[in-house]
User: Fold this.
Amino acid sequence: MSKAFFIDTSRCTACRGCQVACKEWQGFPANFTKQLGWGSHQNPPDLNCYNYKVVRFSEHKINNRVLWNFFPDQCRHCLEPPCKAAADHYVKNAVVIDEPTGAVVFTERTKKIPNEGFLSMKEYCPYNIPRRNPETGVINKCDLCFERIEAGHIPMCVKTCPTGAMNFGERGAMLSLARSRLATVKAEFPDASLLDEDSVRIIYLITLKREEYHDLASLKNPVLTRSIG
Ligand code: SF4
Ligand code: SF4
Ligand code: SF4
Assistant:
């Protein structure tokens, strides 16, 4: 089994059902939100140790048309995860690959990684995903709901999505679905593309150029990052 997501942002309405369902499943507490002075409905403003998923909002005016791009951000479960290479340098098996699913899982052993190692993991991650719980010291992120998958269920965020934006299955099937959907979406959005589909298990379809989404364009290329460490 080699699992993957296909996240079709052209179908995302930013309802945040996936974001809330993840917190509910993980048993996480509420976070403080921020509205005034920040200029965005994105809440909480970033990923944190109690939010493995955050729906990012980017607002643009293009050709006199307002476009509001939504992007449910999370760990990409890289095929060759640079965060694991960084973590292994400090504590072996703090980050493991769940073989049945391919999920990249941060374990309780991450609490033994010194702060220097945590910063290294953040630096090596192409998508700025790892977060540390200041109370427990554990470094965490999305675990692909690997325990749900192995129990015969689909990941909680996928189960909750009402629009078909979130899809889950075998990696080959998700790649086929993503490529087929891209061909359709390109008729209306010629700049549409798939993000890093050869190096990740969480495959996104975006409708505009990377520059039109939060900080996507400045994130590192995982193929280049992979050789570090
Ligand atoms: Fe690790 Fe970052 Fe890749 Fe997730 S996205 S597997 S945290 S390198
Ligand atoms: Fe959260 Fe599970 Fe979805 Fe990951 S796969 S974002 S842990 S609900
Ligand atoms: Fe978008 Fe689906 Fe998440 Fe709602 S549940 S924010 S439609 S991906």
Observations:
- The CA atoms of residues 90 and 113 lie 6 Å apart.
- Residues 221-229 have pLDDT under 50 and may be disordered.
- Strands lie at 3-8, 54-62, 65-73, 95-98, 103-106, 131-132, 139-140, 166-170, 193-195, 202-206.
